[in-house]
What does this fold into?
Amino acid sequence: MRRRRAVGRLVRQYGFAVLVLASLVGATYLAKTVKVPHDVPDFALQAESIYRLEIGAASFVVFYLGVMAFVLALGGRGFAQFGTKGVATDQVVDRQQNLAVRGLARTNRLALTGLADLRAVLQSVAKTLESHDERLGRLEERAETVESVDSSANGKSKGTGSD
It folds into this structure.
């Protein structure tokens, strides 16, 4: 349990930085491995190194926005406004909704546990009923046998008594 908390604390402290570093590494890899067209576009100032730099920068921006969206979503937030002043975030899921969802999840887990216990009890009761049914069948067979013996014994005794 302590180890789990320690890992959670490390993820909260350094997780974003690690994701940004991974974005930077991925963008650098893309910049190094991108195939440069034979005719370098004019927006790259017709230089291969500028083209690679622009591809790397664009990749990093895309990766970074993806990381930001992911980290914000973990906290129940999201991008709310895009404009000339930049990007603003807003709370997408408020705390009451988050608590309600967690409470429902806990209730569902308890209900599933209760249903599993109930299933086990019902299976036990079904087995007990089957054993009682078998015993009742054997007892009925014995009762029929005893009745048939009694009726044949009574029939013989009545027959000998009339002679």
